[in-house]
Amino acid sequence: MRFRFAVLAVAIVPAFSAAAADKLPATGKPAAPYFVSMKNETTNMREGPSADTRIKWVYHRKGLPVEVVASFDAWRRVRDMDGEIGWIHSALLSRERSAVVSGKGEVEIHGSADAASKAVAEAQPGAIGILKGCGPAACRVRFNGAEGWIERSRLWGVHAGEDF
User: Fold this and answer.
1) pLDDT tens across 20-44, in order?
2) Cα 163 to Cα 16, 67, 72, 85, 158, distances in angstroms
3) Extents of the domains making up the chain
4) In CATH, which superfamily holds the domain spanning 99-156?
């Protein structure tokens, strides 16, 4: 009877560990996908997780959000808002959350999360702001000179249903 129990315990432990690994890797960082931003004015996206691989894109926008979809050593496989996928060294990425105004036309920045609240400013598509928090319908974003709430559907850099 002891032998059967030992075999069963060995079979259950690896299954539990694999499930836990999907939620929080050994690094202690959240499991992919998650958003980060670029630390520098110039950042190279590479074809593979090595400085020896070909540069695929050169970004010239500090704070630009990218979505981490995988990790390998100190490299992060990321997707940008246009769907391009490549590798960026983790030293070039920041955990500070940012978002890009998406869609066509200006978007109003409101004084509260209520879309009926007074607009305090406007943001152009492509504007990058620092995410301060998100609720179900809107996110609080800080731009140079303005801070307020923008409709979630007009931002790229936050997952659906993600509240913080």
Assistant:
1) 333 345 555 567 799 999 999 999 9
2) 27, 16, 27, 25, 9
3) 33-95, 99-156
4) SH3 Domains (2.30.30.40)
* Local structure of residue 37 (DSSP, 8 states): E
> How many angstroms separate the CA atoms of 127 and 154, rounded?
11
Q: Could you give the CA distance from residue 89 to residue 66 in angstroms, rounded to a whole number?
A: 13
The class level of CATH for 33-95 reads: mainly beta
| 69-111 pLDDT per residue, tens | 999 999 999 999 999 999 999 999 999 999 999 999 999 999 9
Quote the CA–CA distance of 140 and 85 in Å, as a whole number.
28
Instruction: State pTM to two decimals.
Output: 0.80
**DSSP labels for 77-131?**
EEE-TT--EEEEEGGGEES--EEEE-SSS-EEEESSSSTTSPEEEEE-TT-EEEE
Cβ neighbors of 132 (< 8 A, separation 6 or more) are 139, 140, 141, 142, 147
